[in-house]
Fold CbtB-domain containing protein.
Amino acid sequence: MATAAVPTSPAASAEPVPVRIPVREVLPWALFMGVLALFMIYFVGAEQGATAMFSGTGVHEFVHDGRHLLAFPCH
């Protein structure tokens, strides 16, 4: 009894092709995320006292636990 040969597909033996990521499409998002990160670090780390943009303690109390989690002193 003869056994049939199993055909191999050419796609199975092909090498992977790297995906190209165009910098022009990623750069605006990276810049936006960088500005957003700096904005959030300001509110968590420096929004109190002389550098406060808002009066009162609302922002301070809102980010209080995050401030301690990130080791920023606040009192």
Summary: Residues 44 and 62 are 9 Å apart (CA to CA). The two ends are 86 Å apart (CA to CA).
